[in-house]
Please model this.
Amino acid sequence: MAEAAEEDLSGYRSLGELFRRPLKPWVRPIAPHDMVIPADGYIVHLGRVRRSRLEQVKGVTYSLESFLGPQDWREDGGEQGVRADLYQCIIYLAPDDYHHFHSPTDWHIQHRRHFPGSLMSVSPSVVRWIPGLFCHNERVVLSGEWAHGFFSLTAVGATNVGSIRIYCDQDLQTNCARHVQGCYHDLSYLDWAGPAGVPAPKGAGLGEFNLGSTIVLLFQGPRRFGFRTSAGCRVQVGQALGSL
Model:
């Protein structure tokens, strides 16, 4: 609680408000790297995407299209942006972690896709045993462009964490009984933010969870891109994730 903007527990009206507590602005400095950690947590997996398969954990994979859905919202159909030179990073947020997530690099968000779904646990011990778990759970996919091509950040819901908030998107309603699983709901940010989309500067706040959950980064990058951390590491917002 020493890092919280409000250190006094009596200042929180509910347990949910406590979980979503903001931090003092200086406790998460932003590293001068091309890409930084977007959320406090534990790195489950990172590396290159092989044969359009994503790794949940080592040895457990699922398809790129089943996770993101068809890229028909892109002018090129996504053929170049989400297949060549793709990298991934999965960060698990435990219930006691800071629950806000931030922009990992300078990019523009052009599109939001909301998948209603289950709310199974995403703890690493469970993820090992349920292939495609991230494709079954409720999730919000933010997609757009950075300096090196396609970029996406996906907030994946978990047990008791169907509520996902995106600060720039007041129309988003997650954990809603009227939504049908197996469908998805698209919203183009270009309609109101202009031809580039919503600017997301490195380190800026993007959204929050009600409790612990998972962030999945998928992005195109040059072959010289290198990660500056590894699977199994505990990380915090703003620490170095990768550089060119």
